[in-house]
UniProtKB/TrEMBL annotation:
This is Glutathione-dependent peroxiredoxin. It comes from the Bacteria. The active site is at C49. One of its GO terms (biological process) is hydrogen peroxide catabolic process. It comes from Afipia felis. The keyword Cytoplasm does not apply. The lineage of its organism: Bacteria, Pseudomonadati, Pseudomonadota, Alphaproteobacteria, Hyphomicrobiales. It catalyses: a hydroperoxide + 2 glutathione = an alcohol + glutathione disulfide + H2O.
Amino acid sequence: MSIKVGDSLPQATFTVMTEEGPKPKTTDEIFKGKKVALFAVPGAYTGTCHKMHMPSVFQNAAAIKAKGVDTIAVVSVNDVFVMNAWKRDTDFNNEAIYLADGSADFAKAIGLDIDLSARGLGIRSNRYSMLVDNGVVKKLNLEPNPGKVEVSGGDTLLGQL
């Protein structure tokens, strides 16, 4: 069953890159007591994610934060080294935290995993945006087609704030 508006996020651990190297970061550390705009993509550097989804996030990042969002987070089923390189190549103003969900544990826990094995990508995350307030889902914009950015972009979430 997929997570829905009103649900609390389950306990999960992501990996983030720090100056000291890869470190675990829990859902509580990221979401507790904060308003977070979470953007999930099937894969770093993939065409739609890299050329459409991330630009929509960062074109709207300042406005999203001006509406009271404490943190912008990007999650993908990739390893922390790929996520760190992708942050370097997309987040020019250091406006977001990039969360590696390397084994899709978080995507599976919230029921938003997708099997893209037929495309050689394995188990990935669905494409979505989510507004999370103190660990509770307030908005959820699940993309019906993971190859498109029609309802999960930064502009859509900004309009909901």
